From TrEMBL:
It comes from the Eukaryota. This is Sestrin 1. The lineage of its organism: Eukaryota, Metazoa, Chordata, Craniata, Vertebrata. One of its GO terms (biological process) is regulation of response to reactive oxygen species. GO terms for cellular component: cytoplasm; nucleus. The keyword Oxidoreductase applies. It comes from Suricata suricatta (Meerkat).
Length: 529
């Protein structure tokens, strides 16, 4: 059963005779069902001797057939071929959208209508439909609706931003989109082949992605006063929002272990590299409630240990709430706790932290490949404190974005609020839990890493609620997402479901995006005043 794609005769589908096409489609259906049944029988027969190589080849052959069929279901000009291809795909439960979930179906339809694809980011985010709806609406506006920047510039900026974190998944998506909207293929040979105006954006992209606290009004002035290569304020705000959007989306891509789509290079697998016991198909097949037990790096289920971790976390939350009710720390003590947490956060790194050398096909889209977060933190340099009371999103950033890029401030603000306030009042196996304390600790820890302080928050709570393995995961996803590993993903909150870990990632990316925006928009405000 190790036959390849060559056993199928695709040429029959090219016939103008509908009967010939019908016969060819039926032969393809029979071949796919035969392969599916074979692989299922191997999986379901525990004591059956099997040839691992043969099974792997069979699985790969099936995936290639399905990828070809998926392409036909979307692109074949013959309606009967499109419909039959889709029917065959559904018959083997690949990318099946259940009619029982009308909201999910509508979101998928909106995503496909806007992007011409149903990408794996959407399939993972659909764990949280309320957030996904806001995300898709915002991204659609940034990329396709009226705005200061031409369409091909928008996708190229997306490529530049994703490349800073070596996110080839996002880079490849937007390379295709860039070409689709008429972008010049020569620009894709390297940033030096793009217009000088875009090249000038490279420095802001670099600092914003890795050390946003270093952004000054001089960075802004250099872009706005570059003679014939100058940016307008409206264009720059559009660019800044795109850069922060794709820096954060790269974090989500690596944080959730998202793989390329089935028809793309490297996409012939349904198991994301950073997620265990988890199939991307499960999300759309209605398997939200399947047992999502985490396993440790040795592959053994740690039921008792992970159970007690949840109970301990619940108890800490209860104790902290009691302490809040009894006494309140002084402003001096709160400021001291912030500085301690900020300093400690600089040295939170994984034990297997290693340099990741960017591939040429990604690194050509940005300059200064050695520039990153790690260089800064390991030299013990000081991160200045950014007081939210002096400049915040709600009172300053929101209005500035809305004034220069109408409606976008509102869309981003809605997305921030949904991510921050999203809750199902559950924690692992517990229900009716107020998780606001935990969500705030995660959000504020990320901002603390970027030097952003809330005067009314007790940063001593962070060490109580977030253990080291969780901090390592947060720090890596937010600051160096290209270094996220499956072990990091598996090692935190081991009793929690995948949907809850995706929820964590939504908090991470929105807190990161807001932090970057605050520094960039404050610099723009200072330039304007």
């Amino acid at each position: 059963m190790a036959e390849g794609e060559n056993e199928v005769r695709w040429d029959g589908l090219c016939s103008r005779d509908s009967t010939a096409r019908e016969t060819a489609l039926e032969n393809i259906r029979q071949t796919i069902l035969r392969k599916t049944e074979y692989l299922r029988s191997v999986k379901e027969t525990p004591f059956r001797p099997s040839d691992g190589l043969s099974n792997a080849v069979s699985s790969d052959g099936l995936n290639k057939l399905l990828a070809h069929l998926l392409m036909l279901s979307k692109r074949c000009p013959f309606k009967d071929v499109r419909e039959k291809s889709e029917f065959i795909l559904k018959s083997v439960q690949i990318l099946q959208v259940g009619s029982e979930d009308a909201q999910m179906h509508a979101l998928f339809a909106d995503s496909f209508a806007a992007l011409g694809r149903l990408d794996n980011i959407t399939l993972v985010m659909v764990f949280h439909p309320q957030y996904l709806e806001s995300f898709l609406k915002t991204q659609h506006y940034l990329l396709q609706m009226d705005g200061p920047l031409p369409l091909h510039y928008r996708h190229y900026i997306g490529i530049m931003a994703a490349a800073r974190h070596q996110c080839s998944y996002l880079v490849n998506l937007h390379v295709n989109d860039f070409l689709h909207v008429g972008g010049d293929p020569k620009w894709l040979n390297g940033l030096e082949n793009a217009p000088q105006k875009l090249q000038n954006l490279g420095e802001l992209n670099k600092v914003l992605a890795h050390r946003p606290w270093l952004i000054t009004k001089e960075h802004i002035e250099g872009l706005l006063k570059a003679e014939e290569h100058s940016w307008s304020l409206a264009e720059l705000v559009h660019a800044v929002v795109l850069l922060t959007h794709y820096h954060s989306l790269a974090s989500f891509t690596f944080g959730c272990g998202i793989s390329p789509e089935i028809h793309c290079d490297g996409g012939h697998t349904f198991r994301p590299p950073s997620v265990s016991n988890y199939c991307i198909c499960d999300i759309t097949n209605g398997n939200h409630s399947v047992d999502e037990m985490q396993v440790n790096s040795a592959g053994n289920v740690s039921v008792s240990d992970s159970f007690f971790e949840v109970e301990a976390l619940m108890e800490k939350m209860r104790q902290l709430q009691e302490c809040r009710d009894e006494e309140e720390a002084s402003q001096e003590e709160m400021a001291s706790r912030f500085e301690i947490e900020k300093r400690e956060s600089m040295f939170v790194f994984s034990s297997d932290d290693e340099e990741v050398t960017p591939a040429r096909d990604v690194s050509r889209h940005f300059e200064d490949t050695s520039y990153g977060y790690k260089d800064f933190s390991r030299h013990g340099m000081h991160v200045p404190t950014f007081r939210v009371q002096d400049y915040c999103w709600e009172d300053h950033g929101y209005s500035l974005v809305n004034r220069l890029y109408p409606d976008v401030g509102q869309l981003i603000d809605e997305k921030f609020h949904i991510a921050y306030n999203l809750t199902y009042n559950t924690m692992a196996m517990h229900k009716d839990v107020d998780t606001s304390m935990l969500r705030r600790a995660i959000w504020n820890y990320i901002h603390c890493m970027f030097g952003i302080r809330y005067d009314d928050y007790d940063y001593g709570e962070i060490n109580q609620l977030l253990d080291r393995s969780f901090k390592v995961y947060i720090k890596t996803v937010v600051c160096t997402p290209e270094k996220v590993t499956q072990r990091m993903y598996d090692s935190f909150w081991r009793q929690f479901k995948h949907s809850e870990k995706v929820h964590v990632n939504l908090l991470l990316i929105e807190a990161r995006m807001q932090a970057e925006l605050l520094y960039a928009l404050r610099a723009i405000t200072r330039y304007m005043t």
